[in-house]
């Protein structure tokens, strides 16, 4: 970006027809670039840029295979992604702080920086700001990769100065600093473009177009104000490690101690520094502990004699403290005071409910007693549980009444009453309740057929072949078929019924039920692939309750793709993967220092040193495989290798995780291709997640790749 800004300066000098002269304030290489662009670009030489040397291969790699015939498990992208170059020691202040250091140009130097100005501007004494040269003919606007906005009209006059004489009022510009005009016989002062009139109506001050929003800089460009004008520069800020870009586009320090990005260990204190942090050893311990050999250990106050136990007590040390244990033990019912004496416990006040309701608590030495409250109630009443009042005795509920058989007891306050039940009447001679025979008292009027007396009531019955109607009095013909005495078909006859069966059934020995022909038993399992269910007169094939649906032929079972039809319960952050008879919800998340480049792939963002770049995977890729329990072993299930491969490539395959039961193993087919195969039979459905690491040796450097393979072993298809 700095190179482009310097070149734009030369292009502007050439377009204005000015001479191309070197500006010592710009420094090298900016001055060299400006002269090259000003002179037409014929002698342009790129400034030397120092880069870290890259290792050169002794022999040009020869491609020995393409991606055909390989499952793309892992592949190597361009060499730039594998670069292990480390940053230099010099800090580029101009890159970190952007346009905050200098008004015009910032030039980085070894260990520092310096500011420079555009042509026709002079660097001020503060070393950062620039002002126009005194011999400039007019105020201009400078371009830096942006179009200069149209010049604004002269500022509107805000003050009119009245003068007594009309001639020569604006001689030598009159009282005005910039432009003097006569309006209606009065002097009016105005300012040049890029300036605004001050409060005195005479002087002019610079208009800050950047602050007032009167500039035409686009998003991604930074507006820089100058005297009477402004210019736009491209502003792309890249912060160094330990800094972050805030909303004001400034690089500010990251507080690793607050954001939990530090690596301080236990018993270490994190202290934030500019662009980094440091860990300090904790030098203070909690009360009851002391620092010894860099660790806080317990202080034994009993051994050192720093406890506060009295004469009748023994000191007992605890972790971080101590307690005083009395030498004398108190009996039950007594409590030891701070002086070691045993005093009586008043259980009547210390216990929440020492006695049951109706009893009073009386404290004694070392114990207490409960004494019942004395309350006298009249006949038909008794005291409550608390012994505080008399309540009615329910003779009917307690069974102490003298009501006879067939009588009903009704409780009354302090007494009770005996009444006869419905259907009974009181006999004064026997002083008891006797049954009323309704059939004798009302002959032929209660029942249509037969009346039978019952204790306290009566019951109507019907002759054979009839049943009692809903009113309980009349009789109607019995239709035995209404009660479904037959399993299939019933024919009602007078006083009886007849059962018969439909086609495909036969009547059983009981004469009521029909026996079905069991096709499933007779077919010996050849009708259905999973389960045959016998139904009356036929049969039906069934599938497992979950994961399968019946095929169109009604005999075989077809797997349901829950992921395709949307019947799964996977969250939005998970990926649904269909397997035989079920599905799995998989979550593919990238670990820290990795970014997600596709749904199944994560790539490393950076590495901190040479060993970290070789040992941590440059790419993590997820795969899913589905097999049935009847798979023949050994079975090659996964092929892995670099794509494309080059002569001299060599790989090392390792299963780091998920193979605890040793069902899987790896084998190389050649120096740059390997396989993962199943070496043991999996007899039951089971899920595996294998972490297969591939280390690629190429041109004297190891590069690590990681394949996370989900393997689902399901039951064989029905």
UniProtKB/TrEMBL annotation:
Family: Belongs to the fibulin family.
Protein name: Fibulin-1
Keyword Calcium: yes
Main location: secreted
Record domain Anaphylatoxin-like: where: 6-38
GO-annotated molecular function: calcium ion binding; peptidase activator activity
Family matches, as InterPro entries: Anaphylatoxin/fibulin, cEGF, ECM_structural_protein, EGF, EGF-like_Ca-bd_dom, EGF-type_Asp/Asn_hydroxyl_site, EGF_Ca-bd_CS, Fibulin-1
Function noted in UniProt: Its binding to fibronectin and some other ligands is calcium dependent. May act as an adapter that mediates the interaction between FBN1 and ELN.
Subcellular location: Secreted, Extracellular space, Extracellular matrix
This protein's GO CC annotations: extracellular region
């Amino acid at each position: 970006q700095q190179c482009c800004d310097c070149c734009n300066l030369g292009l502007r000098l050439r377009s204005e027809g000015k001479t191309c002269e070197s500006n010592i304030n710009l420094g090298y290489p900016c001055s060299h670039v400006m002269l090259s662009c000003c002179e037409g670009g014929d002698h342009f030489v790129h400034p030397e840029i120092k880069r870290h040397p890259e290792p050169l291969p002794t022999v040009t790699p020869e491609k020995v295979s393409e991606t055909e015939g390989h499952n793309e498990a892992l592949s190597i992208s361009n060499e730039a992604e594998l670069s292990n170059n480390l940053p230099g020691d010099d800090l580029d202040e101009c890159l970190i702080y952007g346009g905050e250091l200098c008004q015009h140009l910032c030039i980085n130097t070894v260990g520092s920086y310096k500011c420079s100005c555009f042509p026709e501007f002079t660097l001020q004494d503060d070393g950062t700001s620039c002002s126009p040269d005194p011999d400039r003919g007019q105020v201009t606007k400078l371009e830096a990769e942006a179009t200069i906005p149209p010049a604004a009209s002269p500022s509107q006059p805000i003050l009119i100065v009245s003068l007594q004489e009309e001639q020569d009022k604006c001689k030598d510009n009159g009282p005005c600093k910039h432009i003097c005009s006569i309006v209606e016989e009065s002097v009016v002062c105005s300012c040049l473009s890029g300036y605004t009139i001050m409060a005195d109506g005479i002087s002019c001050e610079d208009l800050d177009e950047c602050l007032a929003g009167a500039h035409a800089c686009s998003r991604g460009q930074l507006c820089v104000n100058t005297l009477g004008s402004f210019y736009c520069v491209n502003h792309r800020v890249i912060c160094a490690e330990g800094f972050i870009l805030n909303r004001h586009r400034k690089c500010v320090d990251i507080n690793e101690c607050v954001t939990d990005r530090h690596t301080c260990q236990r018993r270490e204190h994190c202290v934030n520094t500019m662009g980094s942090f440091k860990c300090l050893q904790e030098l203070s311990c909690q009360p009851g502990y002391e620092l010894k050999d860099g660790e806080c250990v317990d202080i034994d106050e009993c051994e050192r004699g720093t406890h506060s136990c009295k004469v009748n007590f023994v000191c007992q040390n605890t972790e971080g403290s101590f307690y005083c244990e009395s030498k004398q033990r108190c009996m039950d019912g007594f409590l030891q005071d701070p002086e070691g004496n045993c005093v009586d416990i008043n259980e009547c006040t210390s216990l929440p409910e020492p006695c049951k309701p109706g009893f009073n608590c009386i404290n004694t030495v070392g114990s207490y007693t409960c004494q019942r409250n004395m309350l006298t109630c009249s006949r038909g009443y008794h005291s409550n549980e608390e012994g505080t009042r008399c309540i009615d005795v329910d003779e009917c509920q307690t069974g102490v009444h003298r009501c006879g058989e067939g009588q009903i007891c009704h409780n009354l306050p302090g007494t009770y009453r005996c009444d006869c039940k419905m259907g009974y009447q009181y006999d004064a001679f026997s002083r008891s309740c006797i049954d009323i025979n309704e059939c004798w008292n009302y002959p032929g009027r209660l029942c249509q057929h037969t009346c039978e007396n019952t204790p306290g009531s009566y019951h109507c019955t019907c002759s054979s072949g009839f049943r009692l109607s809903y009113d309980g009095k009349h009789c109607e013909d019995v239709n035995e078929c209404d009660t479904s005495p037959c399993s299939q078909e019933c024919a009602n006859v007078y006083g009886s019924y007849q059962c018969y069966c439909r086609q495909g059934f036969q009547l059983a020995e009981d004469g009521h039920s029909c026996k079905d022909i069991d096709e499933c038993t007779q077919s010996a399992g050849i009708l259905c692939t999973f389960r045959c269910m016998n139904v009356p007169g036929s049969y039906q094939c069934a599938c497992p309750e979950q994961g399968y649906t019946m095929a169109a032929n009604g005999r075989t079972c077809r797997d349901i793709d829950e992921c395709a039809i949307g019947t799964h319960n996977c969250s939005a952050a998970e990926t649904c993967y269909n397997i035989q008879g079920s599905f799995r919800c998989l979550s593919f998340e990238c670990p820290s220092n990795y970014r997600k480049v596709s749904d199944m792939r994560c790539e490393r963002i950076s590495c901190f040193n040479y060993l970290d770049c070789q040992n941590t995977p440059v790419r993590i890729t997820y795969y899913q495989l589905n097999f049935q329990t009847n798979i023949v072993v050994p079975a090659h299930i996964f092929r892995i290798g670099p794509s494309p491969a080059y002569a001299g490539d060599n790989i090392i395959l390792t299963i780091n995780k998920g193979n605890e039961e040793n069902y899987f193993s790896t084998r190389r087919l050649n120096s740059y291709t390997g396989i993962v195969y199943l070496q043991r039979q999996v007899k039951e459905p089971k899920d595996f997640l294998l972490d297969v690491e591939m280390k690629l040796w190429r041109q004297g450097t190891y590069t690590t790749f990681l394949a996370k393979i989900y393997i689902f072993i399901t039951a064989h298809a029905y």
